[in-house]
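Input record (Table S2, row 312):
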Amino acid sequence: MPTAVVTGGAGFLGSHLCDYLVAQDYRVICVDNLETGSLQNVEHLRGENFVFVNHDLTRHLEIEEPVDFVYHLASPASPIDYLRLPLQTLKVGSYGTHNALGLAKFKRARFLLASTSEVYGDPAVHPQPETYWGNVNPIGPRGVYDEAKRYAEALTMAYHRQQGVDTCIVRIFNTYGPRMRPHDGRAIPTFLRQALANEPLTVFGDGSQTRSFCYVDDLIRGLVLLARSGEHLPVNLGNPQELSLLELAKTVIRVTGSKSEIVFEALPVDDPQVRQPDITRARQLLGWEPQVTLEDGLRRILQANQRESLSV
Ligand code: NAD
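Output record (nicotinamide-adenine-dinucleotide complex):
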């Protein structure tokens, strides 16, 4: 039975990854300090093949048993969180990534870095291929996240080139699904919460900025395919179906049957105007592409919330 360490495993993506790996007969060691994650996300997994370790990854991490994979997801990810936790975000991207890579090196494990489409900043190339180096403002408020991830990518490549660690890097584009926190500030949970309460949906700017939303099950399948591949260079994973924020708000209203109207608010600083992954490499290397449409994904969240009696 392979063993995987999942840092940030009690968060949104991490907990779905833990679910998937346990279902695939992995032993999973979930390492998380619960800064933005929650034990509730993983409590159903507790058992022989799942261990939770409450640990701040900016400090040295020791695991006794053999490890085959290190999935490094620990980092605040929502703008609300990293704007509130700027130093922690930089520290977990730097010291935290050092510690996760050190563990992978010591255990001779395959290492996966969860990077982000934010490394492209406000892109001048559209859609964004992995060869694009990005357009990031290092001193703006979002710089703490974007630069932490860019540093983490550089560090990962250095451990690979200099130390021979078997690494891969995934650049994740906006992903959504059950267990997102209703107040985490990201567009889909915010719109769902507002629509279900028949409150106005708050769209930033004129809503013409675009995003591409990938359903969590598609993303997790891609992460595991990449970790099992022999690839070392970054791979984009996301849904190339692009839509404007205004279209997203209208879709949420339609799917929820809400009576909400749409209101417009000021654009946040350095909010990217466009965002769409070029997934040619993921298609070629992994045979991967997303299968779940936006409307289906939104319905799945509503069903999951009904099942778990959670409010969105
Ligand atoms: P999340 O906030 O739900 O999960 C992050 C987890 O990391 C949380 O459980 C948190 O407690 C943990 N964590 C933070 N700092 C830590 C530390 N110092 N030590 C131990 N644990 C720590 O966010 P998410 O959306 O699940 O994102 C997971 C990863 O995927 C992040 O690295 C993020 O940058 C990346 N990512 C996510 C998206 C997305 O759309 N969700 C997009 C791009 C990249």
